[in-house]
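note to self: dont lose this again. the chain is below, predicted strucutre after it. 175 aa total, dont forget to put it in the shared folder this time
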Amino acid sequence: MISTAISSMRTNKGNLLLDISNDSPVLLIFLRHLGCVFCREAMDDISKAKQDIIKRKTRVVFVHMGTEEEAFPLFERFHLQDAERVSDIAQKYYTAFGLVRAQTGQLASFKVFLRSFQAGVGKGLGAGRVIGDGFQMPGVFMIHKGQKVGEYIHQDASDRPDYIALIDRYLNSVS
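---
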């Protein structure tokens, strides 16, 4: 199911994920809804890590549940307007990668509330209107040569992956 998704995912620039992954490893980031404070934090983290990701010859592709018109302003805010992204309003790729809808505790716990406050208010990332499924859980995958070669599955909405460590784990495994 994942291989079918990889071969059919087309980015906003018209590129197939399969082709991108044949050229270089891909950090494939599935966001929650576009108003999610933790998605904004993820985009901020990726924006700040861009040079480290480029040094590792890895490309980033985002998956979101909005239209391109809805998504672009948020990507632009985080200086990721050139990032390739896949609109998956029907969530078929989320499903293909095994990403599930959240249970209440994954969205509404003290840890999630505290992290939401820290990211939204403390870092000034804010939150926005829900665009997509507010219960969809995110995830991050390393894709190379059409295969899933690494993953980070969120246990709750507030999990914060170490993107560079995920890339390095894969790169170290093939060197």
